[in-house]
Amino acid sequence: MTETSETGGTTGESRTNDEVWIVGATGRIGRGVTARLAARGLKVMPVGRSRERMLAAGAAAGLPGDAKVVVADSAERIADEIVRKRPRVVVNTMGAFAATAPVIARACLPGGGHYVDQANDVVAVDRLLALHDEAVRAGSTLVTGAGFGVLATEAVVAKLCEGRPTPHRVRVDAVASVAVEAGALGAALAASLVDVLTTGGRRYENGRLMTSRLGADPQQLTFPDGESAKSAGVSSGELVAAHAVSGAPFVTATSALVPAAPLIRALLPLFGRLLSVPALRRLAVDRLGRVPVKAAPRPRKHSWGHAVVEWRDGTRREGWLRADDGMDFTAEVTATVTELLARGVGRPGAWTPAAALGADLATAAGGTFVLD
Ligand SMILES: NC(=O)c1ccc[n+]([C@@H]2O[C@H](COP(=O)([O-])OP(=O)(O)OC[C@H]3O[C@@H](n4cnc5c(N)ncnc54)[C@H](OP(=O)(O)O)[C@@H]3O)[C@@H](O)[C@H]2O)c1
């Protein structure tokens, strides 16, 4: 593979070429997405800061020997390359989405190019959705939260609300089950975990996004397959999507990523305040990202997205989305969304995944609904 030098030809109205760029193709999600899209015959180009690592990852993902790569080491430099070369779809897996997503997504707009990421925090998802009007004018589709989080819960809420009046109250719970790969935890995941602590909790009350305690509302969930897990309140893109898709004035979200043990939950606000100090945050992300982790199988057979929807008349509906490994499901969701956008399916605008492409995207990506 060689470093790219020239832009490809333009096609149709969109003034983009036929390339799909994968920012972070050496990472866990990036590798999975690259392999899936290469297998589906798309023209995939890895984008990242190490040419050698991208060449190795591209070869392992099955890219052809003459496939090109784009070398760039920051969201701003990647944006410059996008503006120059006009890929049809850019997949952003580099993390730190609150900062990187608006920069990279905006660079896709002038040519009518499309954008996909896996953000699942309120700030990042809000910032991307704020580009909606610009995306409509440009004819671009921007999709954020293209992973287990947001789609696994958003799709269940959408299904439960289909053809019904606006509900009064919604709760979503996300319990991913993920096999651990041997190696360092990685800076992107470390930054996401630290962001959960520094952002604290959020909930919708009377239609307004309010601060709440991280770890509030602990749940003991029993899944349809008989396994169980604990989860607790979190501020997440899932919360934003559940509110948008249902229109309910009262919405809460929990995640199994938030410790449910009472002592740790009591300490979460203190950790959050400490990690809000920029120097401590940088140190924590750096140290956590380097933590060596041992390979381990996923703790439960399935990952589960769950929603409970209540109406003012007392009607209550509950549903689940069952997926296998949460990381594999995320790579599959991103690959499915990307392929659809590359083939011209998708409304212009900035969206969460089910809002962009419908709740059945979750089954197209390998999930199964279990609805009451
Ligand atoms: N929504 C969901 O359900 C979901 C699920 C899984 C993951 N995620 C999120 O998705 C993101 C990716 O996860 P992951 O596990 O794949 O992370 P990862 O393995 O750490 O991969 C991150 C990738 O980004 C690249 N990168 C980092 N900084 C860069 C920079 N400045 N310039 C260019 N490239 C850069 C890395 O390249 P190098 O090789 O140079 O380090 C690597 O290829 C994380 O934010 C994670 O939290 C979301």
How does this structure look, described?
The chain contains 14 helices and 19 strands. The protein is α/β, with parallel strands linked by helices and 372 residues long. It has two domains: 182 residues, NAD(P)-binding Rossmann-like Domain (Rossmann fold, 3-Layer(aba) Sandwich), CATH 3.40.50.720; 177 residues, Dihydrodipicolinate Reductase, domain 2 (2-Layer Sandwich). The strands form four sheets. The protein has an eight-stranded parallel beta sheet, sandwiched between helices. Helix 4 packs parallel to helix 5. The longest helix has 17 residues. The termini are far apart.
Total domains: 2
Q: Mean pLDDT, rounded to whole units?
A: 93
Cofactors, ions and other ligands in the entry: NADP nicotinamide-adenine-dinucleotide phosphate
What's the architecture of the largest domain, going by CATH?
A: 3-Layer(aba) Sandwich
**Major beta sheet summary:** 8 strands, parallel
Based on secondary structure, the structural category is: alpha/beta
CATH superfamily label of the largest domain: NAD(P)-binding Rossmann-like Domain
Radius of gyration of CA atoms, rounded to a whole number:
20 Å
Unreliable spans are 1-12
Oligomeric status of the shown chains?
single chain
What helical percentage do the residues reach?
40-55%
The CATH topology annotation of the largest domain reads as Rossmann fold
State the end-to-end distance: 51 Å
